[in-house]
Amino acid sequence: xxxxxxxxxxxxxxxxxxxxxxxxxxxxxxxxxxxxxxxxxxxxxxxxxxxxxxxxxxxxxxxxxxxxxxxxxxxxxxxxxxxxxxxxxxxxxxxxxxxxxxxxxxxxxxxxxxxxxxxxxxxxxxxxxxxxxxxxxxxxxxxxxxxxxxxxxxxx
Length: 156
Ligand code: CO
Fold this sequence. Notes:
- By secondary structure, the protein is an alpha+beta fold.
- The chain is built from three helices and eight strands, in the order αβββββββααβ.
- The protein has a five-stranded antiparallel sheet with strand order 1-2-3-6-7. The protein has a three-stranded antiparallel sheet with strand order 4-5-8.
- The structure holds cobalt (II) ion.
- Cobalt (II) ion (CO) binds at residues 88-90, 132, 136.
- Cobalt (II) ion (CO) is lined by residues 88-90, 132, 136.
């Protein structure tokens, strides 16, 4: 495992549409392991492959209940809506007010290529993370969907 460099705002990798993963091999597993290590080292709750310069549809998330690996994720269903503060490891120190669904159901593949579905249950932060991270795979960053950016004194 290794910590990879997190691409910051302005890096062209953050605005690209990523390609689906086709090979579920050792190279993918190494990427997933490195992404998890990189996310934990940066105290993040999610990381998408383009944030480490890899233009493939791969996401890792951990909102406190363990690692979730999503390969080729697709949002199947959403409900509810909530505006809350949101940040991103590619935008250190910046936070925006972003409206997201409160419930999200995702279809994805695991590291062996097996299809599964997962939902956010009652966890609004997980629903937010599913949306934020899958947005990254389409070259969309939170700043571009924020209602407005937040000042430091507005943060809880
Ligand atoms: Co992000």
